[in-house]
Design goal:
15 strands, about 280 residues, D-Maltodextrin-Binding Protein, domain 2, Alpha-Beta Plaits, alpha/beta, homodimer, 3 domains
């Protein structure tokens, strides 16, 4: 862990400075946020729970890779409400020291997931050697430290900016429909850091015994009150065959009278129910 | 691509020999399967579509990481029915050349995701240097080729067996609830390679316009016929705000009269519907 800026909102995230989570922090809180990079997601939650930071930003789902179940698990375990959301488009850039140029590059370092998301680029430039590295932003840091004119990294434009590197090729990812959704978390009772006039959403988790139609009955609590869903996902409870957790996002504030009635009804129908947060809809 | 065994069912998968997908092939088809490792998921689907292999095995969801949306996209695009499913427990092992021992190991190679799933092990052995590598099974192959007594890899027990390496520590992963579910795919009309008396499941994809209650109405087609779901997941259609794809698994054969009626009903309610396959339930 390290400290980056000096003032205001202390925000924990997982990854190196310049990681996509760091971009999410800036999208949510602007440059006023003071960031605390952590190695593990659990650390991020723990720092916020202990009050060592004011906020946390964690990825929750990606359009190519699905939900980050580990973070749903932490949301269940810790009592840290979601107070905002945002989506970051995952754009991969080829990044090197400022004094080099693309034709000098021989090897490209990045996280294997990022390398694998740029296969068309590598097919078009077969002389480039792909070298796996621990982290996307970390690969930029390393390339800058070593100052080799033949080495490049694949990472966010923010990583290039932070480490003073040059972008040789922009947006070299195969799939432009690659977005990650992030949640801003705060401590219960703290004033929400993001205030917008956007319509509001509420994220829920509930479980039902998997008798036929139990999910259908649970959803009736929402549907019969004309509440709209933007996400539903089931997850089997391991060790409890035939029991499921459901993650649901509803377009309504938790204090909306229809939503309060729906939650009361859902409580009757579900074995377990937890409201993870109510927050303004992100872009 | 390479050929491994000489006889019978030619099966494509993504990854190196000894990858977890390769374990899934053996769980589904036994050692009779002749495997064709591919670099990309898309290649796996294409080889099967062109008839260059008889079957394909692809991961579809993981208990920690969620659904592999890329493979759902390929299932939508290609017409290759699911004919079986299986789950593989992801067990990470520390693997090295047979002549070394744990106390000689200084550096550990593996895919960063695998390294990150063994953080408790590394916390207990802080002198071990973690070095990211392209692939879990590939890291065993490399360690065996270089024959350094101080290097180890993290991968499946199958990778140790294939490359003639020794397992120094078994099951060093942090979370034992780490399972990946795989689908066996064949060409339309081919005789299913896996025949069991297990109850049958059907996987569907459908889309609805997101008017309040549209999912609820679609699910009524299943619930009102007492059909049980084992999975439901929504995915926003990018570029089409407020439209969603839903992946649903139903416990019933596609030829079950209730299921046929439900599908007819669902077709009325959904904008788009595709049956991805009907197959015996896996363990």
């Amino acid at each position: 862990m390290g400290w980056w800026q000096v003032k205001s909102v202390r925000t924990a995230f997982q990854g190196e400075l310049g990681a996509f989570s760091h971009m999410a922090v800036q999208q949510l809180l602007g440059k006023r946020a003071q960031v605390i990079p952590c190695e593990r997601f659990e650390q991020v939650f723990r720092l916020l729970a202990k009050g060592e930071v004011d906020a946390a930003v964690v990825p929750i789902e990606n359009t190519l890779h699905g939900s980050v179940h580990e973070n749903y698990d932490h949301l269940l375990q810790f009592d840290l409400p979601i107070t905002a959301e945002t989506s970051v488009r995952i754009i991969h850039n080829l990044i090197a020291i400022p004094s080099t140029s693309f034709k000098k590059i021989e090897s490209v370092y990045s996280h294997p997931v990022a390398l694998n998301q740029c296969l068309n680029f590598f097919a078009a430039h077969p002389h480039l050697q792909r070298i796996p590295f621990y982290d996307t932003a970390g690969s930029v840091k390393m390339v800058m430290n070593e100052r080799r004119p033949t080495a490049a990294a694949i990472a966010s434009s923010m990583a290039a900016e932070i480490y003073g590197a040059k972008i040789l090729k922009r947006s070299i990812e195969d799939d432009r429909q690659n977005f990650t959704r992030f949640f801003l978390l705060q401590r219960p009772g703290d004033k929400p850091l993001v205030q917008t006039r956007a319509e509001r959403k509420t994220s829920l988790v509930f479980s039902t015994r998997n008798t036929p139609g139990s999910l259908f009955r649970a959803l009736s609590a929402l549907a019969l009150r004309d509440l709209n869903l933007t996400k539903i996902e089931s997850r089997p409870l391991r060790g409890k065959p035939w029991e499921y957790l459901f993650y649901v996002d509803v377009v309504a504030d938790v204090a909306d009278p229809r939503m309060r009635k729906a939650l009361g009804h859902l409580e009757e129908l579900a074995d377990f129910l937890k409201v993870l947060g109510s927050y303004p809809r992100g872009k």
